Structures are given as structure tokens and as C-alpha cells.
Amino acid sequence: MATIQECREALDRLSGNLARAEGGAPGAAALDRSLSCHITDLDQTFTGRLDDGRIRVDSVAPGPPPDKAEIRLAMTGGDLVALVAGELKFAKAWASGRVRLEAGFRDLLRLKSLL
């Protein structure tokens, strides 16, 4: 099980990866959306924004997200760390239900090239 600190570091690495993504950066830069990432095994939620191709975390709070963000992720801390490390493929994790991603259809199309 990953710690809150490891999850925060993984989100920071993911933010850097998104900013450097070849071909994906223009799509990411076009997004300015509220974001939540619920770490299910720790029952903690990171909230913030995806803007300028980066994830900005504003807060961490216990429990599920208090408000419905425009982009919502949910997974275990271990899966978040594994995704960012490249040990777990997003498509496989999403298809198997290990990772939940909810967003508007246009946002999903933009995000698919980044994830």
C-alpha cells in the first residue's frame, strides 16, 4: 500500500509527464478543468486543477470528493504509483475496473492521448 506522500509524489510526476508528453501537450494545454483523485485504499482525495498541461493539487481531504470535479479519478495508491512508474498500463487498468475515470466525452478524447 502506498502512503499519502507517495501518492502526492506520483501526482507530481504525472503532472511533469503530462507537460512533457509529445503530441499530447497541445491537448492537455487546451484543458482547464477541476480534478479529483480519490485514493480508495487510503480514503483520501486530492483535489485541484488540470491546466496548462499540468496537474495542480490544491488540497487533500479524507473521504470521497466533496464536490463533483469535471475530471474524476479513483484508484488505490499502489495503482497510482504503478501507473506513473509505467508498471501498470492505463487502458488495462481502466478496462478491468482498477482505475475509474469519469469526465465529459470531449475531455475523455483529449485525455486518451495523454494516458
List its traits.
five-stranded mixed beta sheet; 41% helix; globular; alpha+beta; single chain; 115 residues
Describe the structure.
With 115 residues, the chain is of the alpha+beta class. Helix content is 41%, strand content 29%. The protein has helices at residues 4-20, 25-30, 77-85, 90-96, 105-112; strands at residues 32-39, 44-51, 54-62, 71-75, 100-102. A five-stranded mixed β-sheet has the order 3-2-1-4-5. A hairpin with a 4-residue loop joins strand 1 (32-39) and strand 2 (44-51). Helix 1 runs parallel beside helix 3. The longest helix has 17 residues, at 4-20. The two termini are 22 Å apart. The model has no long low-confidence stretch (mean pLDDT 87).
